[in-house]
Specification:
Length: 146
């Protein structure tokens, strides 16, 4: 396993999160959302202030670096892991789901990413100054091929 490669990919996710947070804070949305099919409640998808981990992107990067592991076996994997979850107004995660996983039905990466995001406390998203439930998509590119 190439740790340099893992750190590069973690850096990419950190960059994506930083861009997402900067863009969301610089633009006022109309705070729109939809009914979540898993939780059966209204969640926001566009807000004035996006949720973020307590400690910021650095905290997320540190937890990913320490806890994201290469799965057992000798299979080669590459692609994008995408998980989605709702961050409620108290900063708790609900309704975590795997959208895409390069390991397919084995869900080796998605289950790890969900476990890792649950290790963090999150600052809730805001709409008009009020904490609201926000559907959050977290992508992470993996490349464990030689």
């Amino acid at each position: 396993m190439n740790l340099k490669l893992i750190h590069r990919h973690i850096f990419l996710i950190v960059c994506l999160l930083t861009f997402n947070n900067c863009f969301a804070q610089s633009k006022k949305y109309a705070c729109s959302g939809r009914q979540d099919s898993l939780l059966h409640k209204f969640v926001y998808t566009e807000v004035d202030k996006m949720p973020e981990p307590v400690g910021g992107v650095k905290a997320l990067s540190a937890v990913l670096s320490k806890n994201f592991k290469y799965p057992p076996g000798d299979a080669e994997y590459f692609g994008k892991v995408i998980v989605a979850f709702v961050i409620d107004p108290d900063g708790n995660i609900e309704g975590a789901r795997i959208i895409n996983d390069p390991s397919g039905e084995r869900r080796l990466f998605g289950s790890q990413l969900i476990r890792i995001i649950n290790m963090l406390k999150w600052k809730p998203g805001e709409c008009n100054g009020k904490a609201v439930p926000v559907l959050y998509m977290l992508p992470l590119r993996v490349d464990f091929s030689e």
